[in-house]
Amino acid sequence: MLIHINLHPQGGKRRRRGLPSPGPTLGRALAPFRDKYLMGAAVAVLASCGGVAALHLSQEHAQAQLAAQEEVAQRDSARFSSVITARAKSVARRDSLGRELRVIAAIDSTRYTWAHLLDEVSASLPPYTWLSNVTQTSAPPAPPATAAGAKPGAKPAAKPAAAPNGLPPVADSLGAVRFRVVGQTVDLQALTQFMRDLEASPFVKNVQLVTSAPAQSQVQGSARELTEFTLDAEFETPPREALRTVTISVPVR
Fold first, then answer.
1. Per-residue pLDDT reduced to its tens digit, 152-200
2. pTM
3. How many whole angstroms separate alpha carbon 150 and alpha carbon 134?
């Protein structure tokens, strides 16, 4: 009868259970996993790799969205380029028409100035009084293009207040129109009445007597002495209610 001696108590149990005994190679392989610092470093590396991958995917998604938006913007720009060009031409045409209308309004606002002045002078002329000369003593007005400020790049001048009936203001933007009246009369009271009537006119102001002297030539067969006079006056912009306007319609074909 042979006697067996088990020098490794656990080895016998493992053999009885049918499990292989761990060798030295498996212990060395599991040794790094028992170091907590090494495990923490590995987890940190894995987390960093995951974060970098997530950022890369998000950047690619954002880049794809921006590329799509850029493509849409390019298509819209190509589609609306003709509309923008047409609008620029329309705005330039509108500005050109505006300048032309301002020139026309400036010309139209002064074309009846002398008609009103001569009408008022004729209506105020008393009996036994004759006029020999009516002249303008002020400088002629500037051209409408200069007054309207049509220089390219210049800021447009402030528009005057429109009239209630929509007409342009009469001689508001022009300088004072001064004129001189030379005539003869047989009665100084008639001359005084003539000056008063002129001053009462809504189109005339600042009537002043410049000279008054006996005339060199007398009316043949008249016993009264003629007096030659010179008056200076200024055109006044009348109030709107003093003007009578008539609407003119012209058919356009």
1. 444 544 444 444 334 344 334 456 889 999 999 988 899 999 999 999 9
2. 0.47
3. 34
Partners of 228 in the β-ladder: 184, 213
DSSP 112-172: THHHHHHHHHHHHPPTTEEEEEEEE-SPPPPPHHHHHT--TTPPPPPPPPPPTTSPPPSSS
Q: At what angle do helices 113-124 and 188-200 cross, to 10 degrees?
A: 140
| CATH number for the domain whose boundaries are 113-141+173-238 | 3.30.70.2830
- Cα–Cα dist 154/140, whole Å: 24
Task: Indicate the domain borders of the chain.
Answer: 25-111, 113-141+173-238
CA–CA dist 211, 222 (Å, integer):
23
